[in-house]
Every structure is written in structure tokens, then in C-alpha cells.
Description:
The complex is a heterodimer of chains A (241) and B (265).
Chain A: H1 3-14, E1 19-24, E2 27-32, H2 37-43, E3 63-67, E4 75-78, E5 88-92, H3 112-118, H4 130-133, H5 141-149, H6 153-159, H7 168-172, H8 179-193, H9 199-209, H10 214-222, H11 225-233
Parallel strand pairs in A: 1-5
Antiparallel strand pairs in A: 1-2, 3-4, 3-5
Chain B: E1 2-6, H1 9-14, H2 16-28, E2 32-35, H3 57-73, E3 77-80, H4 83-98, H5 100-109, E4 121-124, H6 125-131, H7 133-137, E5 148-151, H8 173-180, E6 184-185, H9 199-202, H10 206-220, E7 225-228, H11 231-243, E8 251-254, H12 255-262
Parallel strand pairs in B: 1-2, 1-3, 3-4, 5-6, 5-7, 7-8
Helix pairs in contact in B: 2-12, 4-5, 6-8, 10-11
Amino acid sequence: MGLRAQAQVESVEAGAPKMIRIYVMGREYLVPEGLTILKALEYAGFRLVRGVGCRGGFCGACATLYRKPGEYRLKIALACQNTVEDEMHIVMLPYTPIPKTRYRLENLKLDAGLVFKLFPEIARCVACNTCTKGCPQGLQVMDAVQAVKRGDLARASNLVFDCIACGICATRCPAEIRHPEIFLLVRRLYGKFALPRSRRLEERLKEIAQGKYIVELEKLKKMPVDELKKLYASRTIEPEE
Amino acid sequence: MKVLYYPGCTIKRNAADYEKKAVEILGKIGIEVHELPDWYCCGVLYGTVRDDVAKHIGGLRTLIKAQAASRIHNTTKLLTLCPMCYNVLKRINVMIKTLPENLETLTLFMDEEERYSVAIEVVHLLEILRDHRDELKALVTSKLEEVVVAPYYGCTLVRPREVSFDNAENPESMDIVLKALGVKVVEFPFKTECCGSYMTLISKEVASTKPMEIVEEAVARGANTIATVCPLCHYNLSRALKLTGKKVNVNIVYLTDILLRALGV
């Protein structure tokens, strides 16, 4: 009998999960249903040194492209987050070539013109939305680029707060826009030049430097674990908004 | 009366004051301006091509967003201040009728958006002001005796004919509005000569000689003010004036600046 049928029989007999078929860079593999793409690749024998990172949907290393038979839609996933589906044809895209753009933040200001100078390709955006469709975080990527185009760095910054810089948008963009680098700059400019400074943070840093908390810290370091646990359990918790 | 509003990138980046004054004037004649919550770069000169549908995605997507907003605000009029944006959006409306297969291709591609049913009416500020000149006239408090205006239309407002709301060779909307307010207007045959447009980025020489010809002709006709409705025209004429070595007694202003002064603001 065929590979798949064999595996199904064996798995049913063993009480194991159902096996499904995936294609990695064109080659067929049988993997247990329910695994994440990442785990399924490792099950199939791949040892990943790139395209893997935090395994928690946060670092953007494991961007994966896939298609299902009979559909033209090109879909994206984070290998550590999405589970394998039957007949999934995948490839990982762990890196998009974007050499780091050099600038000194202190020499810049909150001005879209400066962003344009460093990344002139922004003007080429045709609002095709391909970047938005490629975002595993579901961000309004195109709207953010358009916001930079019209000088609204605040809007751009807020739209891409949750960007994990996986680079799919930049890879797919017909205008060759370098989204991850641009958004990083925009967020930095916004954070540094537009958002209010944390006054209390500076006060607190001064207090620490002056040694205000040394006695308390030493006390905690010497405290027995049981007492520490009691202290922790009875701490004041701010009410959630 | 309500209108939807499409600012375009240039207004937001380089002509925020023009927008502020335009909205103020429209407010005075009872026109509520509602900026689209989502809008996209029209594509500027690239939006004027006929053979590449990709260049119309931004403009069409904006029209689709306007279509959605039109249901909320119960108006299908979409106001533009920038003549280039006006030109591109209106051309897309025209293209959809003359090349319906383009709409099909774009609709298939933009399948995350609703279908565009060509219901949005793209208008320019000047059209509205011309049509409501009587309401403006009723609010005039100052005659502006010392102002002599050469109304400068530029080219994207009146060319090609299928997008123009006025005579392409001799538009008179601005003349009519200014005269209704009692402002002195001169005959100005260079009123639709190109200011150099985006050539200012490509060939600084062209962008200096053409606008200077326009400015000098206005002055030769007796004007001390050139009124424009386009941020790029404003920029090109002002820049040429600044760079010229000669002393020329003329002010380059937006039409809205003159109107607000006549209205005593």
C-alpha cells in the first residue's frame, strides 16, 4: 500500500494522531496532524538553524509562504504559530536582503522628508496592498507606508507597533520598498521626538543611582524563600484597566 | 450641504494652510467637509497613464473608500484641493467608462474591497466656489481696492477636456468668483500655461524659465497678485520669483487667501 495509507494504518493501530501530507520545497512529507509547521519540519528531520527563533510568534524569524492545491492564493504563516494543514505546500523565508541603513538618530527629527531621503522608494507605492496581504500580524502595512507618504509619522508609527520585522512585505513589494527598516526608523523618530518623556523614569533612575533602594534589595537577597513567597503573594497589584 | 474630502499627499505635507482656509471658507457658505477616513496617494503624474492599470490602484481604492463614506454622509461629491489629484481621480472615472475591462481587472485584483460602481462625483474647490459665488458675495466686508489679480489656473485643472469643468482654452471660474466679490481682475492669456509642474524635480532650468514668463506676463498686464489653486503652481511660481535677480512687484497667493481677506477674516 502507499506511504500515506501505510502511515494511517500504523498510526490508527498505535492510537497515534492522524498523519497528513505536506510538501516542503516540493518534497512530500508525512507529519502528524496538530503540529505547528515548525514542529512538523523538525519531525520530518529538518534541523533548523535559520528560520527559527523565539518559537513564540514574536521574533519574525520563521516567516513561511504556502499554497493549497487548486487555489491561487499565496498565504503566509509564522511556522511557530500556524499548524500544518493537509496538502500544504510550503517554503520558509527566513531572510529578506535589506542591508542596514546607517543614520544617527540624534541628528534627525520628526520629519517625513528625512525618511524619504533615506528611503526614496516610498514614493513608488501604488497602494496595491500586497504588503498588507503578506503580514502575519494582520497589520495595515500599506496604510502605514501611505501615512509616511503624506507626512503622518504618528499614524504610521501606531499602525506598525506590532511589526515583528519578518520581511514578507518587503519581499513581495513590487515597488521594492524596505518596510521593516522604514517602520523601525519611523517608530524610533516618533518615540524619541513626539512621545512625552517619562519624567518619573528619570527621577527613579536618579534615586537608584543615589542608592535609595540598596538596603531594601540587600534585605530581599538575604530573605529565606518561604518568606519571599509570602511577600510576593501579598504584593499590591494595580487594577487592570 | 456635505462633501467628502480627499486631501492628497501634497496638501497634507506642504499646504496645510491652504486646506485650513478652504475648509473655513466652505464652512462659511454652509458646506460641511468630511475627510475620508482612508485614502491613498493618487499616483500623481503616474496616475495619468492610460496603459498601466497598476498605476490606478491607489486612485481607484480611494474612490472605493469614498463610495463607502458616501453611504455614511449621504453625499457622492468628493472634494479635491489639489488639481493633480482632481485630474487623476476624474480620469479614473472617465477611464472606467471608456475602458471597462480595466475596471474588471482592477476589481479582480482588489478583491478585498467592494466593487466600484462609478457613483462618486469628483469636484474641485474652484467649481464649488464658482457655483456658490452668490453666497460668498453676501459675506463680503472688504473690497480689497489695492489688489489687482491675474487668475492663474495652471494645466491639470483644465486638461484634458473630458476632465475639465471649465473651458480648457479660456477658463473663467476664478475670474467669475473674484469679480463677484468686487476684486479687480486682469485679462491674462497665460492663465493656463504650464508652471513647469514636476519638472522642478528633474530640470531646474525649465522649472525656472517657464514660471518666470508667467509671472512677468501677469505683471505686464497690470497685476500685483497672482491667484492660484494648486500647491505645485504656487511653489514653482514662488520659487522662480525668489530666484530671479530682478525686483518684481507681485505676490503669489492662493485664491483662498484673497477670499478670506474679502470676507474680513
